[in-house]
Amino acid sequence: MLVIAALLAPGSLLWSQVPDTARANRGLARLTAKLHADQTLPDSLRRLTAADLLKPENSNHAALLDDSTASLLLKTMAATTRQVPESLCGSFLGGSPVPAGDLDIMLPYADSSTLENWLTILERIVRARAQPVAGRRIASDSMLRVAFLSVYARLDTASQRRLIRVAQNPPPSRSDACWSLLAVMDGLAALPVADAGPVVRAMFGQAAAPPAKRQPGQE
Asked: pTM to 2 decimals?
């Protein structure tokens, strides 16, 4: 499934900006101060640092988000992918269908609006960790396959042909890798809100799951 996600390809250009680490740090400082002052949160979450908020151990809890925030996450991830340099964009391809584990690298490149969206998402992740809601729908493997194939189906013919060429000639160039990741994010960002939640829960739930234990006799 990760291979399917990784190889979906976009047909638009990206742009990048000079990273503003100071702005990102100021935003994170505001958020950590807000969390620290919130007596409704358990102490373990109130004491989270900016570095803690950006770690995969926190972002993988996006599996707890409601549908609306999950949709915002996909849209914000798509916007951020367009704002990082091509060298970074291309390097994200492969490990995860949604590279939010690289937030520490990406956040300084986010413009003001995108940064504020990330701060909203990170706050909601923390609050979801404090009060998780059981029973939310999670996409099955077949539902994920349909979602990713729908991204492919929305591509024009030229982009579909490029997708096939990239898939048949690994490893992709830096440009092709970034092009591919952009399509994944653009396509997922276009999912209806009701579908975004289950897809995000499935993808981040997979990322958060511990590796399977080997059974006796397995190599």
From this structure: 0.83
Structure tokens belonging to residue 154: 């929305």
Helix and strand tally (H, E) in the chain? 13, 0
The burial class, CB within 10 Å (0-12 / 13-18 / 19+), for 211 is: exposed
Residue where the block lists tokens 């940064």: 115
Phi and psi torsions of 15, nearest 5°? -130, 160
Region for residue 107 given its phi and psi (left: phi exceeds 0; alpha: psi -120 to 50; beta: otherwise): alpha
Residue appearing with tokens 């997922």:
188
Rounded to an integer, what distance in angstroms lies between the CA atom of residue 41 and that of residue 62? Answer: 18
Each residue's pLDDT tens digit, 6-18: 444 343 444 446 8
> Which element (helix H / strand E) includes 158?
helix 157-168
Contact 50, 32 (CB under 8 A): yes
